[in-house]
Amino acid sequence: MLALNNNNALQLESRATLKSGALACVRVACLASSFATLAPLAHAQDAQTLVSQMKSAEATVSYSATQTTNGGTARVFRSGLKRRLEWLTPNVKSGDIVVDDGTNVYLYHRSEKSATKTTSRGRTPSFVATGTAKPTTFAGRRAFLVSISGGRTLTIDAQTKTLLAITGGTSGFSLSGIKFGGVPASKFDFVAPAGVKIDSFDGTLYANINAARRAASWLKTPAQPPSGWSFESAIVGSSSAWLRYSNGQNRISLFEQPTGDGDLPPIPQGVKGSDGTFWRKGGVRFLATGSPDSALQSVVNQLK
Protein backbone atom coordinates (compact mmCIF):
# COMPACT_ATOMS: atom_id res chain seq x y z
CA MET A 1 0.00 0.00 0.00
CA LEU A 2 2.87 2.30 0.81
CA ALA A 3 4.45 1.75 -2.61
CA LEU A 4 1.08 2.41 -4.25
CA ASN A 5 0.69 5.57 -2.23
CA ASN A 6 4.19 6.60 -3.24
CA ASN A 7 3.31 6.01 -6.88
CA ASN A 8 0.15 8.00 -6.47
CA ALA A 9 2.14 10.74 -4.82
CA LEU A 10 4.65 10.68 -7.66
CA GLN A 11 1.84 10.87 -10.20
CA LEU A 12 0.25 13.77 -8.36
CA GLU A 13 3.61 15.53 -8.12
CA SER A 14 4.21 14.94 -11.82
CA ARG A 15 0.80 16.32 -12.72
CA ALA A 16 1.39 19.36 -10.50
CA THR A 17 4.75 19.93 -12.20
CA LEU A 18 3.15 19.74 -15.64
CA LYS A 19 0.37 22.07 -14.56
CA SER A 20 2.92 24.51 -13.09
CA GLY A 21 4.93 24.33 -16.30
CA ALA A 22 1.86 25.00 -18.40
CA LEU A 23 1.01 28.02 -16.27
CA ALA A 24 4.58 29.23 -16.62
CA CYS A 25 4.32 28.88 -20.38
CA VAL A 26 1.08 30.86 -20.32
CA ARG A 27 2.76 33.57 -18.28
CA VAL A 28 5.74 33.70 -20.70
CA ALA A 29 3.39 33.88 -23.67
CA CYS A 30 1.47 36.72 -22.05
CA LEU A 31 4.67 38.60 -21.28
CA ALA A 32 5.92 38.07 -24.83
CA SER A 33 2.63 39.36 -26.16
CA SER A 34 2.86 42.40 -23.90
CA PHE A 35 6.41 43.17 -25.02
CA ALA A 36 5.36 42.74 -28.64
CA THR A 37 2.61 45.30 -28.06
CA LEU A 38 4.96 47.72 -26.34
CA ALA A 39 7.80 47.31 -28.82
CA PRO A 40 6.36 49.64 -31.50
CA LEU A 41 5.77 52.27 -28.82
CA ALA A 42 9.39 51.98 -27.68
CA HIS A 43 10.63 52.35 -31.26
CA ALA A 44 8.32 55.33 -31.83
CA GLN A 45 9.74 56.95 -28.70
CA ASP A 46 13.25 56.27 -30.00
CA ALA A 47 12.33 57.98 -33.28
CA GLN A 48 11.05 61.09 -31.51
CA THR A 49 14.11 61.12 -29.26
CA LEU A 50 16.24 61.06 -32.40
CA VAL A 51 14.27 64.00 -33.82
CA SER A 52 14.81 65.93 -30.57
CA GLN A 53 18.53 65.20 -30.71
CA MET A 54 18.57 66.46 -34.31
CA LYS A 55 16.89 69.71 -33.26
CA SER A 56 19.57 70.28 -30.62
CA ALA A 57 22.38 69.40 -33.03
CA GLU A 58 21.08 71.81 -35.67
CA ALA A 59 21.63 74.70 -33.23
CA THR A 60 25.38 74.06 -33.00
CA VAL A 61 26.55 72.01 -36.01
CA SER A 62 29.15 73.43 -38.43
CA TYR A 63 29.72 72.12 -41.94
CA SER A 64 30.06 72.90 -45.63
CA ALA A 65 28.26 70.89 -48.31
CA THR A 66 26.38 70.97 -51.60
CA GLN A 67 22.64 71.34 -51.13
CA THR A 68 20.15 70.20 -53.76
CA THR A 69 16.49 71.27 -53.67
CA ASN A 70 13.60 71.43 -56.11
CA GLY A 71 14.71 75.01 -56.74
CA GLY A 72 18.31 74.26 -57.69
CA THR A 73 21.77 73.53 -56.32
CA ALA A 74 23.89 75.63 -53.98
CA ARG A 75 26.99 75.51 -51.83
CA VAL A 76 25.87 75.74 -48.22
CA PHE A 77 27.85 76.78 -45.15
CA ARG A 78 26.44 76.30 -41.64
CA SER A 79 27.51 77.37 -38.18
CA GLY A 80 24.66 76.77 -35.77
CA LEU A 81 21.84 79.15 -36.67
CA LYS A 82 24.03 80.97 -39.19
CA ARG A 83 23.83 79.93 -42.83
CA ARG A 84 25.17 80.95 -46.24
CA LEU A 85 23.91 79.73 -49.63
CA GLU A 86 25.83 80.36 -52.85
CA TRP A 87 23.53 79.31 -55.68
CA LEU A 88 24.98 77.39 -58.62
CA THR A 89 21.83 76.48 -60.57
CA PRO A 90 19.42 77.23 -62.24
CA ASN A 91 20.60 80.07 -64.49
CA VAL A 92 18.33 82.71 -62.94
CA LYS A 93 19.79 81.90 -59.49
CA SER A 94 23.42 81.32 -60.47
CA GLY A 95 25.52 83.79 -58.50
CA ASP A 96 22.75 84.59 -56.02
CA ILE A 97 23.72 84.62 -52.34
CA VAL A 98 21.67 84.20 -49.17
CA VAL A 99 23.35 85.06 -45.87
CA ASP A 100 21.59 84.43 -42.55
CA ASP A 101 23.71 85.76 -39.69
CA GLY A 102 21.24 84.62 -37.04
CA THR A 103 19.67 88.08 -36.73
CA ASN A 104 19.16 89.30 -40.29
CA VAL A 105 18.91 87.64 -43.70
CA TYR A 106 20.46 89.20 -46.80
CA LEU A 107 19.40 88.14 -50.30
CA TYR A 108 21.55 89.14 -53.25
CA HIS A 109 20.17 88.54 -56.76
CA ARG A 110 22.99 88.75 -59.27
CA SER A 111 20.83 88.99 -62.42
CA GLU A 112 18.82 91.86 -60.93
CA LYS A 113 21.78 93.52 -59.20
CA SER A 114 19.62 93.87 -56.08
CA ALA A 115 20.01 93.08 -52.39
CA THR A 116 17.31 92.80 -49.72
CA LYS A 117 17.59 92.70 -45.94
CA THR A 118 14.94 91.01 -43.81
CA THR A 119 14.60 89.26 -40.45
CA SER A 120 16.08 85.86 -39.57
CA ARG A 121 13.77 83.20 -38.16
CA GLY A 122 16.65 82.32 -35.80
CA ARG A 123 15.41 78.87 -34.88
CA THR A 124 15.89 75.21 -35.67
CA PRO A 125 13.19 73.09 -37.36
CA SER A 126 10.64 71.18 -35.26
CA PHE A 127 9.12 67.87 -36.33
CA VAL A 128 7.04 65.08 -34.80
CA ALA A 129 7.91 61.50 -35.72
CA THR A 130 5.04 59.40 -37.06
CA GLY A 131 6.94 56.14 -37.58
CA THR A 132 9.92 54.15 -36.41
CA ALA A 133 13.58 55.06 -36.93
CA LYS A 134 15.06 52.86 -39.64
CA PRO A 135 18.84 52.52 -40.12
CA THR A 136 20.23 53.39 -43.55
CA THR A 137 23.35 54.66 -45.31
CA PHE A 138 23.43 58.15 -46.77
CA ALA A 139 26.37 59.55 -48.76
CA GLY A 140 28.60 56.91 -47.19
CA ARG A 141 27.50 57.76 -43.65
CA ARG A 142 25.41 55.76 -41.18
CA ALA A 143 22.04 57.43 -40.77
CA PHE A 144 18.41 56.94 -39.77
CA LEU A 145 15.19 57.47 -41.71
CA VAL A 146 12.32 58.95 -39.68
CA SER A 147 8.82 59.50 -41.10
CA ILE A 148 7.06 62.75 -40.20
CA SER A 149 3.73 64.35 -41.14
CA GLY A 150 2.84 65.25 -44.71
CA GLY A 151 4.34 62.06 -46.16
CA ARG A 152 7.85 63.39 -45.55
CA THR A 153 10.97 61.57 -44.37
CA LEU A 154 13.95 62.91 -42.45
CA THR A 155 17.46 61.50 -42.92
CA ILE A 156 19.43 62.06 -39.71
CA ASP A 157 23.16 61.42 -39.38
CA ALA A 158 23.80 58.67 -36.81
CA GLN A 159 26.98 60.20 -35.41
CA THR A 160 26.34 63.96 -35.35
CA LYS A 161 22.49 63.90 -35.45
CA THR A 162 22.68 66.45 -38.28
CA LEU A 163 19.70 66.68 -40.65
CA LEU A 164 21.05 65.39 -43.98
CA ALA A 165 17.89 65.41 -46.09
CA ILE A 166 14.14 65.91 -46.17
CA THR A 167 12.23 64.06 -48.89
CA GLY A 168 8.56 64.02 -49.84
CA GLY A 169 6.03 66.81 -49.55
CA THR A 170 6.18 70.09 -51.46
CA SER A 171 9.73 71.02 -50.51
CA GLY A 172 12.87 69.37 -49.27
CA PHE A 173 16.62 69.17 -49.67
CA SER A 174 19.53 66.77 -49.76
CA LEU A 175 23.17 67.32 -48.75
CA SER A 176 26.18 65.82 -50.49
CA GLY A 177 29.93 66.19 -50.06
CA ILE A 178 29.40 67.24 -46.46
CA LYS A 179 32.48 68.24 -44.46
CA PHE A 180 32.02 68.78 -40.74
CA GLY A 181 34.15 71.36 -38.98
CA GLY A 182 34.51 75.06 -38.32
CA VAL A 183 33.40 77.55 -40.97
CA PRO A 184 35.16 80.97 -41.15
CA ALA A 185 33.08 83.70 -39.49
CA SER A 186 33.58 85.87 -42.59
CA LYS A 187 31.22 83.55 -44.51
CA PHE A 188 28.33 85.06 -42.56
CA ASP A 189 29.23 88.69 -43.19
CA PHE A 190 27.33 90.14 -46.14
CA VAL A 191 28.98 92.89 -48.17
CA ALA A 192 26.92 94.22 -51.09
CA PRO A 193 28.74 94.31 -54.44
CA ALA A 194 29.76 97.73 -55.71
CA GLY A 195 26.79 99.76 -56.94
CA VAL A 196 24.18 97.57 -55.21
CA LYS A 197 21.96 99.18 -52.59
CA ILE A 198 20.53 97.07 -49.75
CA ASP A 199 16.76 97.54 -49.44
CA SER A 200 14.96 96.50 -46.25
CA PHE A 201 11.72 94.54 -46.37
CA ASP A 202 9.86 93.96 -43.12
CA GLY A 203 9.19 90.27 -42.60
CA THR A 204 10.68 86.79 -42.39
CA LEU A 205 12.08 84.70 -45.24
CA TYR A 206 10.32 81.41 -46.08
CA ALA A 207 11.38 78.75 -48.56
CA ASN A 208 8.19 76.72 -48.03
CA ILE A 209 4.92 78.09 -49.41
CA ASN A 210 2.81 76.36 -46.73
CA ALA A 211 4.89 77.94 -43.96
CA ALA A 212 4.47 81.32 -45.65
CA ARG A 213 0.69 80.85 -45.77
CA ARG A 214 0.60 80.00 -42.07
CA ALA A 215 2.51 83.19 -41.27
CA ALA A 216 -0.26 85.48 -42.62
CA SER A 217 -3.93 84.51 -42.87
CA TRP A 218 -4.53 87.24 -45.48
CA LEU A 219 -1.83 85.97 -47.88
CA LYS A 220 -3.12 84.89 -51.30
CA THR A 221 -1.19 82.56 -53.60
CA PRO A 222 -1.85 81.13 -57.08
CA ALA A 223 -3.59 77.75 -56.92
CA GLN A 224 -1.20 76.53 -59.62
CA PRO A 225 1.96 78.32 -60.82
CA PRO A 226 2.27 78.72 -64.61
CA SER A 227 3.47 75.60 -66.42
CA GLY A 228 7.20 75.16 -65.83
CA TRP A 229 7.24 77.62 -62.92
CA SER A 230 7.61 76.94 -59.19
CA PHE A 231 7.55 78.82 -55.90
CA GLU A 232 11.01 80.18 -54.98
CA SER A 233 10.70 82.19 -51.76
CA ALA A 234 8.54 84.56 -49.74
CA ILE A 235 9.21 87.35 -47.28
CA VAL A 236 6.14 87.69 -45.06
CA GLY A 237 5.60 90.40 -42.46
CA SER A 238 2.64 91.60 -40.42
CA SER A 239 1.53 94.11 -43.06
CA SER A 240 3.20 93.10 -46.34
CA ALA A 241 4.50 90.12 -48.30
CA TRP A 242 6.76 89.51 -51.29
CA LEU A 243 6.48 86.20 -53.14
CA ARG A 244 8.78 85.05 -55.94
CA TYR A 245 8.24 82.40 -58.61
CA SER A 246 10.80 81.17 -61.13
CA ASN A 247 11.09 78.97 -64.22
CA GLY A 248 14.87 78.73 -64.02
CA GLN A 249 15.36 81.58 -66.51
CA ASN A 250 13.00 84.33 -65.32
CA ARG A 251 11.25 85.50 -62.16
CA ILE A 252 7.84 86.84 -61.21
CA SER A 253 7.37 88.94 -58.06
CA LEU A 254 4.04 89.27 -56.28
CA PHE A 255 3.68 91.99 -53.64
CA GLU A 256 0.69 91.92 -51.26
CA GLN A 257 -0.60 94.14 -48.47
CA PRO A 258 -3.83 94.14 -46.43
CA THR A 259 -5.96 97.13 -47.46
CA GLY A 260 -5.83 100.05 -45.07
CA ASP A 261 -2.19 99.65 -44.01
CA GLY A 262 -0.90 102.49 -46.17
CA ASP A 263 0.96 102.38 -49.46
CA LEU A 264 2.59 99.26 -50.82
CA PRO A 265 6.24 98.98 -49.79
CA PRO A 266 8.68 100.26 -52.44
CA ILE A 267 9.73 97.66 -55.00
CA PRO A 268 13.31 96.57 -54.23
CA GLN A 269 16.00 97.91 -56.54
CA GLY A 270 16.42 96.02 -59.80
CA VAL A 271 13.15 94.05 -59.79
CA LYS A 272 12.24 93.63 -63.45
CA GLY A 273 8.88 94.85 -64.74
CA SER A 274 8.42 97.22 -61.82
CA ASP A 275 5.49 98.93 -63.58
CA GLY A 276 3.61 95.59 -63.36
CA THR A 277 -0.10 95.09 -62.74
CA PHE A 278 -1.85 96.58 -59.70
CA TRP A 279 -5.28 95.61 -58.29
CA ARG A 280 -7.27 95.12 -55.07
CA LYS A 281 -9.45 92.19 -54.06
CA GLY A 282 -10.80 90.65 -50.86
CA GLY A 283 -9.20 93.22 -48.55
CA VAL A 284 -5.75 92.82 -50.12
CA ARG A 285 -3.91 95.03 -52.61
CA PHE A 286 -1.63 93.33 -55.13
CA LEU A 287 1.25 94.27 -57.42
CA ALA A 288 2.58 91.63 -59.84
CA THR A 289 5.76 92.20 -61.83
CA GLY A 290 8.10 90.14 -63.98
CA SER A 291 8.35 88.45 -67.33
CA PRO A 292 7.36 86.92 -69.67
CA ASP A 293 3.94 88.55 -69.90
CA SER A 294 2.11 85.24 -70.48
CA ALA A 295 3.32 83.77 -67.17
CA LEU A 296 2.68 87.03 -65.33
CA GLN A 297 -0.87 87.17 -66.68
CA SER A 298 -1.51 83.59 -65.58
CA VAL A 299 -0.67 84.55 -61.98
CA VAL A 300 -2.77 87.73 -62.19
CA ASN A 301 -5.81 85.90 -63.62
CA GLN A 302 -5.80 83.41 -60.72
CA LEU A 303 -5.82 86.11 -58.07
CA LYS A 304 -7.67 89.00 -59.70
Could you characterize the architecture of this molecule?
The protein has 304 residues and is of the alpha+beta class. It has 2 domains: 42-196, outer membrane lipoprotein receptor (LolB), chain A; 200-303, 2-Layer Sandwich (Phosphorylase Kinase, domain 1). It is 25% helix and 39% strand. The chain contains 3 helices and 17 strands. It has helices at 2-58, 209-215, 293-303, and strands at residues 62-69, 72-79, 82-89, 97-100, 104-109, 114-119, 129-138, 141-148, 152-157, 163-167, 173-180, 198-206, 230-236, 241-246, 251-258, 277-281, 284-290. It has a 17-stranded mixed β-sheet, sandwiched between helices. A hairpin with a 2-residue loop joins strand 2 and strand 3 (82-89).
Question: What can be said about this structure in brief?
Answer:
It contains three helices and 17 strands.
Structural topology:
Elements: H1 2-58, E1 62-69, E2 72-79, E3 82-89, E4 97-100, E5 104-109, E6 114-119, E7 129-138, E8 141-148, E9 152-157, E10 163-167, E11 173-180, E12 198-206, H2 209-215, E13 230-236, E14 241-246, E15 251-258, E16 277-281, E17 284-290, H3 293-303
Parallel strand pairs: 6-12
Antiparallel strand pairs: 1-2, 1-11, 2-3, 3-4, 4-5, 5-6, 7-8, 8-9, 9-10, 10-11, 12-13, 13-14, 14-15, 15-17, 16-17
